[in-house]
Amino acid sequence: MVCLVEDLTPAGHVDGSGPGTLGVPREPLDLAIAGIALSHICHYLSVLVLFALTKKVFDGTDKCARSLPVLAAALHIVCPAGAFLSAPYGEALFSLLNFLGFYIYVLALRDERGGFLFPRDVKFVTAGCIFAAATTVRSNGILSGLLFAYDALSSVIEIVQARSLKWSGIRRLISIVLGGSVILLGTTAPQYIAYSQYCQAASPPRSWCTNTFPSIYAWVQSHYWWALDPPTARGTHHEFTQACLARLALPPAMLAVLAITSYHVQIINRVASGYPVLYWWLASAFLGYGSKESYLLKPRHVLSGMVMYGIVQASLFASFLPPA
């Protein structure tokens, strides 16, 4: 934050007084208050979006369908990200954008199921734009592109199996590819800006500029963090729900693989907070939906651990200790 304040200081002002560039306040306290307020607003909105998303995916009249949205949203309030959702970090904004992208994507699938093709195409592209914004906040947001990759591959397979080119299939494929391509901008645009500023305009250029793949993300992770050794929308309502879940499970599944093999142990809980499958699984376990009577680890123990971890994490975070 101090570095940010220094970057916003105009030439000739070194005392931290006066307005910053672009109308941004330069006082650390003002920045902290604004960041905390924004994080709380985003966290509140992400709870509402998760509720709406869960209601759309598990739409029904049984006990699980009625209770799951409320329980999943409540679990997000006490998720393992803890204090990072209240501090001036990107986790709350990322969760909001990622949940919103999933929500728009599910709406696109529902439009397709109802035969509303133009709204479906618009929502596919809109979801891609929202995921791109999420990716600029946290680079792991690019994993949401797996939704588009899955549907694009499914569309290609349908076209090949039909052995004929129909405009409806081509149109669907174009909208999906367009939406998925937009997500790439969320990771390439910040990389390009960083490369232009630190490699082309700086003299001498930074050390990572000469790498085979000059990624500022990889350099920041390796330089500032230490790492541990790696320890279709057709048919019945049930089929539609399963189709949604199959797609929405892809990003967290890939995230789990990356977390086990290469992610920093301190950020796994933080980045996982932006994916709904975690809350759906735990909420369904609480409701006893589709589960056995005995658990190796009971859901109430998981919830207790989440709450206790949040309390301990906040205390350590305020003292500038890990996981800060």
Topology:
Blueprint: H1 2-7, H2 28-57, H3 63-77, H4 91-114, H5 117-137, H6 145-162, H7 167-200, H8 216-224, H9 237-248, H10 250-261, H11 268-272, H12 277-287, H13 299-318
Helix pairs in contact: 2-3, 2-4, 3-12, 4-5, 5-7, 6-7
Subcellular location: Endoplasmic reticulum membrane
Transmembrane segments: 31-53, 65-86, 92-110, 170-189, 271-290, 302-321
Function: Mannosyltransferase involved in glycosylphosphatidylinositol-anchor biosynthesis.
Would you kindly provide a written description of the structure presented here, covering whatever features stand out?
By secondary structure, the protein is an all-alpha fold. It has one domain. The protein contains 13 helices and no strands. It is globular and about 60 Å long. Residues 1-22 and 226-234 have low confidence and may be disordered.
Silhouette: globular
The number of helical elements comes to 13
> What is the C-alpha radius of gyration, as a whole number of Å?
22 Å
Number of domains: 1
Q: Which structural class matches the secondary elements?
A: mainly alpha
Terminal Cα span: 14 Å
Can you summarize the main beta sheet? none
What proportion strand?
A: under 5%
Residue share in helices? Answer: 55-70%
Q: Please provide the count of β strands.
A: 0
Order of helices and strands: HHHHHHHHHHHHH
Low-confidence region ranges? 1-22, 226-234
Could you report the average pLDDT, rounded to the nearest whole number? Answer: 78
Subcellular location: Endoplasmic reticulum membrane
Protein name: GPI mannosyltransferase 2
Transmembrane segments: 31-53, 65-86, 92-110, 170-189, 271-290, 302-321
GO biological process, one term: GPI anchor biosynthetic process
